[in-house]
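Quick start: load a record and inspect it. Here is PadR family transcriptional regulator:
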Amino acid sequence: MNRELMKGSTATMLLMLLNSRALYGYELIKELERKSEGTFALKEGTLYPILHAMEGEDWVQAYWETVEGRKRKYYQITDKGKRILEEKKREWALFRNAVDSVLGNGGI
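Running the structure step on this input writes:
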């Protein structure tokens, strides 16, 4: 997948995953890969800067939890993050429809 295409949508996809439940980093990577049927395979070096930026914008908040003796940093979506997600979904629908119109209603 072209990195430029992914750049604008990665945060939205992460917010969508966090909208259902809090997840830790590795879970986010695996869930994104699973839901995209392998199309999106983020590396930790890509994921964590995005999560930290979203945390700085108050779209997500992080907390630590110990599970089976291991400390894990979980991320959960905030109310602001939920509002941003809805805005991003509307933007994506508009963008997708415009691209589909140009490509011929269904793309390639």
